[in-house]
Amino acid sequence: MISVIIVFIIFSALILYNINRMTNILCVQKEIPEERHPKIFRTINIYITILLISSYVEILFT
After folding, report:
1. Which domain holds residue 20?
2. Which residues cross the membrane (predicted)?
C-alpha cells in the first residue's frame, strides 16, 4: 500500500511539472500578459490536483 502511495506521488509530481511547463509555453506562445499568468497557473493547477486526487481515490477503492 505504501509503495502505491509513493509511486502515485512521484507520478503526480511529474504530471504537475509537465502541465506547468506546457502552460508556460502556451502563455509565451499566445503572448498572454504577465499579470494574467498567476491566475492561469492557479486555475490549471487546481483542476489537475482535483483530477489527480479523484484518480487516487478511484485507485484506492477499486
Report:
1. 1-61
2. 6-28, 40-61
Handedness of CA 40, 44, 45, 47 (dihedral sign): positive
Cα distance between residue 19 and residue 40, in whole Å: 12
Number of domains in the chain: 1
Sheet strands (E) in the chain: none
pTM of the model: 0.86
Q: Which residues contact 44 (CB under 8 A, 6 or more apart)?
A: 19, 20, 23
Task: Give the position of cell 503572448.
Answer: 31
Alpha helix segments (H runs only) across 1-62: 2-29, 37-60
Q: Could you give the CA distance from residue 12 to residue 33 in angstroms, rounded to a whole number? A: 28
